[in-house]
Amino acid sequence: MTTRAGFIALIGEPNAGKSTLLNHMVGAKVSIVTHKVQTTRARIRGVAMEGDAQLVFVDTPGLFKPRRRLDRAMVAAAWGGAADADIVVLMVEAHRGVTEGVEAILDGLADIGKGRKVALAINKIDKVQSGALLALTSDLNDRYPFTETFMISAERGHGVDDLRKWLAGELPEGPWLYPEDQIADLPMRMIAAEMTREKLTLRLHQELPYQMTVETESWQERKDGSARVDQIIYVVRDGHKGIVLGKGGETIKAVSQAARAELEEFLDRKVHLFLQVKVRPNWLEESERYSEMGLDFKDGNT
Description:
Layout: E1 4-12, H1 18-26, E2 44-50, E3 53-59, H2 69-83, E4 87-93, H3 100-112, E5 117-123, H4 130-143, E6 148-151, H5 160-170, H6 188-203, E7 212-221, E8 227-235, H7 238-245, H8 250-267, E9 271-279, H9 287-292
Parallel strand pairs: 1-3, 1-4, 4-5, 5-6, 8-9
Antiparallel strand pairs: 2-3, 7-8
Helix pairs in contact: 6-8
């Protein structure tokens, strides 16, 4: 049996559907999905099997114009993920077309794309007419020599199987990189923190989520097979702490219940989740917080 394995980087603007596509490919919720932009901070890898090939997906933060240290570190991680991959897949939203952001990514691909295959995946195809879709495909392929183009709906799964089969056939021959039953290489502590952060992001619609991070402080395995997970939610102001807690603690309670339910489903066992909220005015400038998110603090330097 000839096995294949390699890394595939999904790149694109925030909200292009990278996390949704990754979760569909892997068949499990590995990368958090929200309607807020810039929710993916770390380079989360999901592992999918297709025949004799092992596809290791690098779900990069969305590429956008960075303004703060955290933004710069996220953008550096995204391009770093693309530079380390065997195949790069650029995702573009069909209804938004060639935005300024997409143009900037195409410029970056001129350098990063050298010597590797770059595929184009036009996502959310159900939002436009076929004529507009063909025009967009033609326009993008005029701007960059994509190896292959795919029309997909990551949310509905349309075209995803074709993309996965193509990727499997293009990966280099070699032994698998992970055990067959492993779906993500992030430590469970980080996946658990991401789940809680997703629930907070969905619940709080203010600007707060970008000035907030969640860390799993401790993880204890219990004799009865359950796990006790203690997490800290860091915010930058006292006022934010009140928002996260909610009236009578109702917000934090709802977030805790939702995160615990998802974690239990993911682990297929009982979880005791305890959340604390702490004010840390300068967490955006602390290197340890970046390490927790799988980012390089130095990448945020101007």
